[in-house]
Design brief:
It is a single chain. By secondary structure, the chain is of the alpha+beta class. The chain has two domains: 259 residues, 2-methylcitrate dehydratase PrpD; 119 residues, 2-methylcitrate dehydratase PrpD (60s Ribosomal Protein L30, Chain: A, 2-Layer Sandwich). It has 23 helices and eight strands. The strands form three sheets. Strands 6-5-7-8 form a four-stranded mixed beta sheet. It has a two-stranded antiparallel ribbon with strand order 1-2. Helix 2 crosses helix 4, helix 4 runs antiparallel to helix 10 and helix 6 runs antiparallel to helix 8. The protein starts with 5 loop residues before the first helix and ends with a helix. It holds the Pfam family MmgE_PrpD_C.
């Protein structure tokens, strides 16, 4: 329990913040966050998980005024927020706030873009709200991590709903009281279990957080009241879901310390703790050549215990399970040099040559190893060995993706769904989000053939 009025103080900050209060470098990172998110949402649009979600919810849609990114279907904004949130996370390729392994943009951007097709907003307003939502989500995640995560909560779902509510409430111009209601309505809808990793339901978490956060803001705007201290109360979110409640992480240096500036972007489409292993195995493949890979007798990984805890699936049967198998990822990086979405399909996971090499991979936990590092020892059939140590992988804060690398990532995945020309056009518009209509970007993601048929 705390004497601080956390929900009230956070709400007051959200309401009072202006566009000019956000430093230029933070706004620039917000643009990068949007670019990365849009590429992932379009890139995941044709996944079977999205197909199943649409079959389930489409019959119950209200007025179909919001776009399902990269597809022909339209839904009401609440359902569009859900499906686009699923699409943006299903490849496990989206952004990561590395302090807590939360994926900030999925819940926030999915809710905001759906709202933008219902209520007119400028690109500047959209970007400010996106940054506000990411900031709120990451600060609340910081406040309860790692105890909350260790209990089994999927922090992207549980913290993401606050970010979506804050972002949408900011656009709606909620009063402080309404914003407190929205945050508390978000708190009571906070959900997501780590048990679901490796299944379709993992991507449901950011989708549901987007839908529920938007719903929370709409309810608050309509006068639907709630607790005014849903975050910090004795039976509020932080105390119920975690043994740790560090409210300085929520309220400390608000407006001067920006968690939204610390976002990172994945070069590999899988659990973030696998990235050092993929990075190292790709380097080994480049050093020894493809022919020498065929002579590997064994691969020993020395990793932080969290790696096996999160990604210890030794015999994945589906592409989604492969994203949580450090064994599959190592084999695929060595044999194919691949860590993109193409490495994590049902077909690739079941390839005999991948399975054969995967079975030679062993992982040993080393508590002294940083969770973002790995030591790899490859033994060859002639008895020789090669060792590789990766302190921080590509995509980390120490080795961030450049704008050019983000562009390649965007076009490579989006082009597979909507074609290369449309992917390039979308990318160009995403970089200019502050000066364009967000709703127009959503509508422009529909494949050209579908637009032509509709006209």
């Amino acid at each position: 329990m705390t004497d601080r009025k956390v929900t009230a103080e956070l709400a007051a900050w959200i309401v009072a913040l202006t566009d000019a209060d956000i430093p230029a470098e933070v706004r620039r990172e917000g643009v990068r966050t949007f670019v990365n998110w849009l590429g992932c949402a379009v890139g995941g649009a044709d996944h079977e998980t999205v197909d199943a979600a649409l079959r389930a919810v489409s019959p119950f849609s209200g007025p179909r005024e919001a776009t399902v990114l990269g597809r022909t279907e339209r839904l009401d904004p609440l359902h569009a927020a859900l499906v686009n949130g699923i699409s943006s996370h299903v490849l496990d390729y989206d952004d990561t706030h590395l302090k807590t392994i939360v994926h900030p943009a999925g819940p926030v951007a999915s809710a905001l873009l759906a709202l933008a097709e219902h209520r007119e907003m400028s690109g500047t307003t959209f970007l400010t709200a996106l940054i506000v939502g990411v900031e709120v989500e990451c600060r609340l995640a910081n406040a309860v991590y790692p105890h909350h995560y260790d209990r089994g909560w999927h922090i992207t779902g549980t913290a993401g709903v606050f970010g979506a509510a804050a972002a949408c409430g900011k656009v709606m111009g909620l009063s402080q009281q309404q914003m407190q209601w929205a945050l508390s309505l978000a708190a009571t809808q906070s959900a997501g279990l780590r048990e679901m990793f490796g299944t379709m339901t993992k991507s449901f978490h950011p989708g549901a957080a987007a839908q529920n956060g938007l719903k929370a803001a709409l309810l608050a705007e309509a006068g639907y009241d709630s607790s005014l201290q849903g975050i910090e109360a004795l039976r509020g979110w932080a105390n119920v879901t975690s043994e740790k409640q560090d409210y300085d992480e929520v309220l400390g240096e608000l407006g001067s310390r920006w968690e939204a500036a610390l976002n990172s972007y994945k070069p590999y489409a899988c659990g973030i703790v696998i990235h050092p292993t993929i990075d190292g195995c790709q380097q080994i493949r480049e050093e020894i050549g493809a022919d020498r890979v065929a002579q590997i007798a064994g691969v020993q990984l020395y990793t932080h215990p969290l790696v096996r805890e999160l990604t210890g699936k030794t015999t994945p049967q589906t592409g989604l399970e492969g994203k949580f198998s450090v064994y599959h990822s190592a084999a695929c990086a060595l044999l194919r040099g691949d860590g993109a979405p193409t490495a994590f399909t049902d077909e690739v996971v079941r390839l005999p040559e991948i399975i054969a090499l995967r079975d030679k991979v062993q992982a040993e936990t080393d508590p002294a190893m940083h969770e973002a590092s790995v030591r790899i020892v490859v033994t060859f059939e002639d008895g020789s060995t090669l060792e590789k140590y990766v302190e921080r992988a590509l995509g980390s804060l120490e080795r961030p993706l450049s704008d050019e690398q983000l562009e390649v990532k965007f076009t490579d995945q989006a082009a597979l769904v909507v074609g290369a020309d449309l992917a390039r056009d979308l990318l160009a518009h995403a970089w200019k989000i502050e000066s364009v209509d967000p709703a127009a970007i959503a509508r422009a993601s529909v494949p050209a053939t579908a637009r032509a048929e509709a006209s």
